[in-house]
From TrEMBL, chain A:
<protein>
    <recommendedName>
        <fullName>Beta-amylase</fullName>
        <ecNumber>3.2.1.2</ecNumber>
    </recommendedName>
</protein>
<dbReference type="Pfam" id="PF01373">
    <property type="entry name" value="Glyco_hydro_14"/>
</dbReference>
<keyword id="KW-0624">Polysaccharide degradation</keyword>
<dbReference type="GO" id="GO:0000272">
    <property type="term" value="P:polysaccharide catabolic process"/>
</dbReference>
<keyword id="KW-0326">Glycosidase</keyword>
<dbReference type="InterPro" id="IPR017853">
    <property type="entry name" value="GH"/>
</dbReference>
<dbReference type="GO" id="GO:0016161">
    <property type="term" value="F:beta-amylase activity"/>
</dbReference>
<keyword id="KW-0119">Carbohydrate metabolism</keyword>
<dbReference type="InterPro" id="IPR001554">
    <property type="entry name" value="Glyco_hydro_14"/>
</dbReference>
From TrEMBL, chain B:
<dbReference type="InterPro" id="IPR006047">
    <property type="entry name" value="GH13_cat_dom"/>
</dbReference>
<dbReference type="InterPro" id="IPR017853">
    <property type="entry name" value="GH"/>
</dbReference>
<feature type="domain" description="Alpha-amylase C-terminal beta-sheet">
    <location>
        <begin position="851"/>
        <end position="911"/>
    </location>
</feature>
<keyword id="KW-0119">Carbohydrate metabolism</keyword>
<comment type="similarity">
    <text>Belongs to the glycosyl hydrolase 13 family.</text>
</comment>
<keyword id="KW-0479">Metal-binding</keyword>
<protein>
    <recommendedName>
        <fullName>alpha-amylase</fullName>
        <ecNumber>3.2.1.1</ecNumber>
    </recommendedName>
</protein>
<dbReference type="Pfam" id="PF07821">
    <property type="entry name" value="Alpha-amyl_C2"/>
</dbReference>
<dbReference type="Pfam" id="PF23166">
    <property type="entry name" value="Ig_N_CWD1"/>
</dbReference>
């Protein structure tokens, strides 16, 4: 009887797999009904219960058996191809991820702690080494001078410890517009009566997100100097976090100025979108700066040079390569230019030195690594005068290496240098800005190498495009790896978004496994070709 | 159980298989409620118990009319009309009887409910293979019949002269001659008023006739024989079984079925009645007026309704436009209790003499609005179009709200939805963030990784061990990332439509992942197989855009826009001619703009596999193209002899009705890339639904997607599941693997319709085998179980359902299907016919639960039960659901569950 024949052939099929396949195909051809079924005209029914016809089931069974076993590779179960990271070679790059700027709210609660917890676990599973936590002056010492409130940050450190990640703490003595975190209120209040504690540009516009470096040693804060206040802050931090020091907390960075970077806020009125920039302005017009300049000029016997900043420095809306910065014959190359620029950058470097030695002495009895951040002022780098760097406080021109002294200062304080912008590549910079993040990075890292300063990397574009990952990888891997630690900025909605997170996981994986292991190669391609179902069994119009 | 033996009027006959040796069996009661016996004639006959209760539910959407009147002290006065549905029971009658002589027979189909009934029918001929319909011969068609393409007829039912009691009665009679070679008559019933179709489990009514014709039928005792005519026994037994779809669910399939009404049997033919239930509207209203008393600076709010019974107003007040429920200060009106310190409940006072009730509330001046819903009984709540009723109290906001209301009334279907809930209420919930988070499971994995990393001894063990671990870890990471994402995303306080576009555009040059969109997409298929008929579908859909948006859809899939040989658009000819049977290119642009205005992304249906030619080649074969893309036969694949292509062999399956495009040709791909970009720019399409992607390699799809950068893309990879002896195999891994292989070939740039899930749902629901909904690893058995973010789940589309019905979802169980896909991960796609049917409000309810709980395509799912008659799962630990007739209640653990929505054999709970 036919039915039983079919049943047994199907059973064979199951046992013998592919050989059986051929048998049954032959069988099919000899059966006119089955052919009819296969080729029937309009129907597009693929299968349904009501076709309880044994023959149709045989046909389908053929397909079922002739399929390769399902391959559930990681490509299948998740779109990210990641795995736990292999044990790291000693010289491998450590990877950190920045926590949200507003991780701790101004009332010392952890913002969206569930998300952070989930995020920490995901990072741990991914094989990330640690996280970076920005600790804001305006939150921890918000109420009054000397009144510290660490509870929020302590809770967060505990979470990090629980998950088994390392923690890098950034002590932020600046405000963050982006995260709406101000300076401590009592500091801002001082600023109202004493505007000179803030930087100012030529038009008198103030920058109120951090204190001016000239007040470092002036007792403007209720009889204390900012340096003293910073120092006490660091001491209190050290005491409060002593259980974590050296174990969970492996690194601390000290904020040196705007956005934590060692620089003048020459960029603060710029649009942040990296569009074509105008000139940036010197920030030497607050009362203390001008006094200092005056004294300095008089000491050097050129009192006329100390009356104000460069009168012909281009304003915001002017071409940066005009007047003072003129490529040929601009006064930046004149003796006056040298006088001013040296003074301007020396002030910055000595400010950095003050803070770093403060931090070094404070944390000398712990095993944490100290670091501080230097900006990557890459605009106009391909010019002779480097106007953006000059206004930011780096006397780096075609004639002079401005980063040598900086690296030397870091070296003196045994501090690591954090360099952002490792995700930037030259080809993605607008041509008109003559910028070169890659060359600048190379220059700074060369200076660091020379002075044995270790470098940590960061990205500049927050959770940026996947192009950035390529560049980061380039900077971190191979012979020319410039950094041994990279902090990826920054956890948040866009970081975990479906558009970003998969590429991040791919990046993490590729950092560890530059060559793709054979396990990871999609085995699917050939199989897909094989697994195409027998042709024309059904037609399908739409 | 009584069975009625009759002459073989409807019976099964195996015409094509005479060589099958008959296997005699004795009469046997089967679970399908029919009895098979041998008759002397050697044919099988069966008798039916047919207590059918079809779920016939009329659409019930009407505008809530607001009448506003101004008077000096009346700040607000409005009457909301409340349309509730009530069930009306009726009958479908099917009679087959012989006429004057033995050759003339008559089939009568009637319906006892009022409505604009149309019989949509066709026949099978002797030589037909398969179960497709054909048009009946002309002499068989009753007057007023309209032909529907080449396979069906539509005949309106007329008021019958024969009254059935006092009821109005509609019927249609079809006369036919038994000498014609017709083997069966198939039909479905359609209510033109509502557009609803009445079938059986997604299949047609089928009346087999063959036995009258040829008397040489074999005795078919073998069980195998039953499926040969999908319609014959299977179909009618399905009809019987189907009754569970409507009102009661025979848990064991048979015991509950009602005794059929069988009359006039015997030589006359047969006569069956099937009870049907149609939901009809009951109009009620609630009037709200607010008076302001200047002396006391208090507002006095008066609610009056004509709803019968004890009506409880469940209410709160709010101090700002945020409509956050608060409890007012005392004193409260009489009969008021505070409910869970979240809301107030006031029992309205019954009116004397007649139904209706009213109540008065005195409110302090500080409150800006009064929010309420009406509670009719424990399970029945009335709200305003899915939202709370909101009554503005202060004058200024009153004007504002009024204008808003007026505006919204322009959008049709602003109705008061009946909402069935129990337990918890539509109280706005505060999202609380638990300090402790994450599962212990994750911690385990973390420690496991530590072991893994440290414990690598040999390369081999690493391979095997890590491969297993990797899968778990990957899923865990994806889950955690999705969790973090959803919280971060919503925790941004300034988060708003504009904020996203600005912030994201600045921070990341956003490339939305085309495989998933945002991950929170809900798709509506915006057409069915008949949408081309009016010739102005774009205009018709235009009117529905606002409603689709308000119901929570984020993506709409439009029909193929190009000039096409077939009116439905799937046989494209000139790709750059976008004047189709759905409307003109300009109308299309207007429609797309309209969807964008209401925040809906638009998918174009791109048919890339095949293209109809303009000219013949020298051999008279149609394979030379015209129009802007005037390809020659090099653009046609070589391995389809019908079209004599000179291209390479096809990289996929062939579709035989038109020349298949050879995508391996550079010029073809270039042209297609350009065309897609043109559609993006010119029309404004945001993404693609890619037709018949089985026909070519997924790598080409990746190329097209990379070039056109869609916001969202989904491909149709539709092939067969595996069956053994007509039963679907439990394990459909091979099937989903093929779909996943395709997605992989596209590099994940496109999602794919989860055909596997649909197929498994069919079997599970149809046969009450809910255990099928869990695979061996305890995960969903479809694509959604393996690659949720790329699975576009659906239960029906224009091919499987609509008027084609190639693979229709089990009838009456659609809502179970939606309860599954709208709560589960993956990107759900709702079919137009369902979105705008009487299921519409239930579907909207499920969508709002999904959105409220931020379930997305990567949400986690834990299957909590997969038994014979019930399937239950928990999603993101925020939503619990069950489908199937069996009992299930979510366990009370860390979450407290409250019922969010329920319907026929499904329930959904939310954690509170």
């Amino acid at each position: 009887m036919e039915v039983s024949v079919m049943a047994s052939s199907q059973a064979n099929l199951r046992d013998t797999e592919l050989c059986g396949d051929r048998d049954v195909l032959g069988f099919c051809c000899s059966n006119s009904n089955l052919n009819a079924q296969i080729c029937y005209g309009k129907s597009k029914i693929c299968f349904s219960k009501s076709i309880g016809w044994p023959k149709s089931s045989v046909r389908l069974a053929i397909k079922a058996v002739s399929q390769p076993e399902p391959v559930v590779s990681e490509k299948v179960s998740g779109e990210t191809s990641t795995s736990s990271r292999k044990a790291k070679p000693a010289d491998g790059v450590r990877l950190y991820v920045g926590l949200p700027l507003d991780s701790v709210s101004d009332c010392n609660a952890i913002n969206h702690s569930r998300a952070i917890m989930a995020g920490l676990k995901a990072l741990k599973l991914l094989g990330v080494d640690g996280v970076e936590l920005p600790v804001f002056w305006g939150i921890a010492e918000k109420e009054a001078m000397g009144k510290y409130e660490w509870s929020g940050y302590l809770a967060l450190a505990e979470m990090v410890q629980k998950v088994g990640l390392k923690l890098h703490v950034s002590l932020c003595f600046h405000a963050s517009k982006e995260a709406k975190i101000p300076l401590p209120k009592w500091v801002s209040d001082v600023g109202k009566s004493r505007p000179s504690i803030f930087f100012a540009d030529r038009s008198g516009q103030q920058y109120k997100e951090c204190l001016s470096l000239t007040v470092d040693d002036i007792p403007v804060l209720d009889g204390k100097t900012p340096i003293q206040v910073y120092k006490e802050f660091c001491e209190s931090f050290k005491t409060s976090f002593s259980p974590f020091m050296g174990s969970t907390i492996t690194g601390i960075s000290v904020g040196l100025g705007p956005d934590g970077e060692l620089r003048y806020p020459s960029h603060h009125h710029q649009a942040k979108d990296n569009s074509i920039q105008g000139a940036e302005e010197f920030q030497c017009y607050d009362e203390n700066m001008l006094n200092h300049l005056k004294q300095h000029a008089e000491t050097l016997g050129n009192p006329l040079w100390g009356l104000s900043g460069p009168h012909d420095a281009p304003r915001n809306d002017q071409s940066p390569l005009s007047n003072f910065f003129n490529e040929n014959g601009g006064s930046w190359e004149s003796p006056y230019g040298d006088f001013f620029l040296s003074w301007y950058s020396d002030l910055l470097i000595s400010h950095g030195d003050r803070l770093l030695s403060l931090a070094a002495s404070t944390f000398s009895d712990t095993s944490v690594t100290l670091s501080a951040k230097v900006p990557l002022v890459h605009s106009w780098y391909r010019t002779r005068s480097h106007p953006s760097e000059l206004t930011a406080g780096y006397y780096n021109t075609v004639n002079r290496d401005g980063y040598e002294e900086v690296a030397e200062m870091f070296s003196r304080n045994s501090t690591k240098m954090i360099l952002p912008g490792m995700d930037l590549s030259d080809e993605n910079q607008p041509n008109e800005s003559l910028s070169s993040p890659e060359l600048l990075l190379a220059q700074i890292t060369a200076a660091c190498r020379k002075h044995n300063v270790e470098v940590s990397g960061q990205n500049l574009m927050i959770s940026g495009a996947s192009r950035g990952f390529e560049q980061i990888k380039k900077n971190l891997s191979g012979e020319n790896a410039v950094a041994d630690l990279f902090t990826y900025q920054r956890m948040g909605a866009s970081f975990f978004s479906p558009d970003h997170f998969p590429s991040f996981t791919a990046f993490v994986r590729s950092l560890d496994q530059p060559e793709v292991h054979s396990d990871d190669l999609p085995t699917i391609q050939e199989e897909a070709a094989e697994s195409l179902p027998g042709k024309n069994l059904q037609m399908q119009a739409a | 159980m009584a069975t009625v033996a009759v002459d073989p009027l409807i019976h099964h006959y195996r015409r094509k298989t005479p060589r099958l040796s008959p296997k005699l069996t004795t009469a046997k009661q089967s679970s399908l409620n029919y009895t098979r016996r041998l008759l002397s004639r050697g044919a099988t006959f069966c008798s039916f118990k047919s207590p059918l209760r079809l779920a016939v539910r009329a659409g019930s959407t009407e505008a809530a009319l607001a009448e506003t009147s101004e008077s000096t002290d009346v700040v607000f006065d409005k009457t909301f009309s409340l349309k509730r549905t009530a069930k009306v029971e009726g009958k479908i009658l099917i009679r087959l009887n012989s006429g004057k002589d033995d050759k003339k027979w008559q089939l009568t189909v009637g319906c006892s409910l009022p409505g604009k009934w149309v019989l949509h029918w066709g026949v099978n001929y002797v030589n037909d293979i398969g179960s497709e319909w054909d048009q009946p011969p002309l002499e068989m068609r009753p007057p007023d019949s309209i032909t529907i393409k080449d396979y069906a007829i539509e005949t309106p039912l007329k008021k019958s002269s024969m009254a059935l009691g006092s009821d109005i009665f509609y019927e249609v009679k079809i006369d036919f001659n038994l000498n014609s070679s017709i083997t069966a008559i198939n039909f479905v019933l359609k209510d033109e008023d509502t557009g609803a179709w009445y079938q059986h489990r997604g299949r047609d009514f089928k009346v087999p006739l063959t036995d009258y014709l040829q008397d040489d039928g074999n005795v078919v005792g073998s069980k195998k024989g039953f499926g040969i005519w999908p319609g014959a026994l299977g179909q009618l037994s399905n009809m019987l079984l189907n009754s569970e779809g409507a009102q009661y669910d025979g848990e064991d399939g048979t015991s509950d079925l009602r005794e059929p009404t069988q009359q006039k049997r015997g030589l006359e033919g047969f006569y069956e009645e099937h009870s049907i239930i149609k939901e009809s509207l009951i109009d009620s209203s609630v009037s709200v007026s607010v008076r302001r008393s200047p002396e006391t600076t208090k507002n006095s709010l008066h609610i009056e309704t004509d709803l019968p019974g004890d009506i409880v107003v469940h209410w709160g007040v709010c101090k700002d436009e945020g409509k956050r429920w608060e409890i007012p200060a005392e004193p409260y009106p009489a009969e008021t209790i505070v409910f869970k310190s979240k809301a107030m409940r006031t029992l309205l006072q019954r009116k004397d003499g007649g139904p209706g009730a009213c109540g008065c509330f005195t409110l302090d001046d500080e409150y800006v609005g009064f929010l309420f819903v009406l509670k009719l009984d424990e399970d029945t709540w009335l709200n305003y179009n899915g939202n709370d009723f909101y009554i503005p109290l202060s004058n200024s906001s009153g004007l504002h709200t009024r204008s808003r209301l007026v505006e919204s009334e322009k959008n049709e279907q602003q109705d008061v939805l009946e909402r069935v809930e129990s337990g918890s209420l539509p109280i706005p919930e505060k999202t609380t963030e638990a300090n402790q988070a994450g599962s212990a499971y994750t911690d385990e994995i973390i420690s496991e990784i530590r072991n893994l990393v440290s414990g690598i001894s040999s390369e081999k063990s690493r391979k095997t061990k890590s491969k297993e671990a990797q899968e778990t870890i990957l899923q865990e990471i994806e889950k955690l990332a999705a969790e973090a994402y959803s919280i971060f995303r919503t925790a941004i306080p300034t988060f708003s439509e504009t904020a996203i576009s600005e912030a994201e555009a600045e921070v990341l040059p956003v490339k939305i992942c085309s495989g998933t969109g945002t991950g929170f997409e809900i798709v509506c298929q915006g057409f069915n197989w008949e949408s081309h008929r009016s010739g102005k579908w774009y205009l018709e859909l235009h009117k529905k855009a606002a409603e689709l948006s308000s119901r929570g859809f984020t993506v709409v899939w439009l029909p193929p826009p190009t000039e096409s040989i077939s009116p439905e658009g799937y046989m494209p000819k000139d790709l750059y001619n976008l004047n189709s049977r759905y409307g003109s290119i300009d109308e299309l642009k207007v429609l797309v703009t309209r969807f964008h205005e209401v925040g809906i992304k638009v998918l174009g249906d791109a048919v890339l596999n095949h293209r109809c030619a303009h000219h013949k080649n020298q051999n008279g074969i149609w394979n030379i193209f015209g129009g802007r893309l005037n390809w020659d036969d090099r653009a046609v694949v070589a391995d389809d002899p019908h079209f004599q292509g000179r291209g390479n062999k096809s990289s996929g399956d062939n579709f035989h009705a038109a020349p298949n495009i050879d995508h391996s040709q550079d010029f073809v791909r270039k042209d297609i890339r350009e065309w897609l970009c043109w559609l993006r720019n010119e029309i404004g399409y945001d993404g693609w639904r890619l037709d018949f992607v089985r026909g070519f390699w997924g790598g080409y799809v990746k190329e097209y997607i990379d070039a056109s950068e869609p916001y969202f893309a989904v491909g149709e990879y539709w092939d067969s599941l595996s069956y053994t002896y007509g039963e679907m195999d439990h394990n459909q891994d091979a099937h989903r693997q093929r779909i996943i292989d395709w997605i992989n070939a596209t590099n994940g740039t496109a999602g794919a319709f989860d055909v596997t899930t649909k197929g498994i749902l069919h079997s599970a629901l149809e046969r009450c085998e809910y255990w099928r909904l869990s695979d061996q690893k305890g995960k969903p058995p479809g694509v959604v179980g393996w690659w949720p973010s790329r699975a576009v789940t659906f239960i029906e589309n224009h091919d499987t359902g609509s008027t084609q019905g190639h693979w229709r979802f089990p009838g009456g169980k659609e809502m179970q299907g939606y309860a599954y896909i709208l709560t589960h991960p993956g990107t759900p796609s709702v079919f137009y016919d369902h979105a705008f049917s009487n299921y519409g409000s239930e579907i909207s309810e499920l969508i709002s639960v999904r959105n409220r709980n931020k379930i997305h395509c990567r949400s986690t799912i834990q299957i909590t039960k997969a038994d014979r008659d019930v399937y239950a799962a928990m999603i993101d630990e925020k939503v619990a659901m069950k489908i199937g007739p069996g009992h299930y209640e979510p366990p009370s653990g860390p979450q407290k569950w409250s019922l969010a929505t329920e319907g026929n054999d499904y329930k959904v709970w939310e954690a509170s």
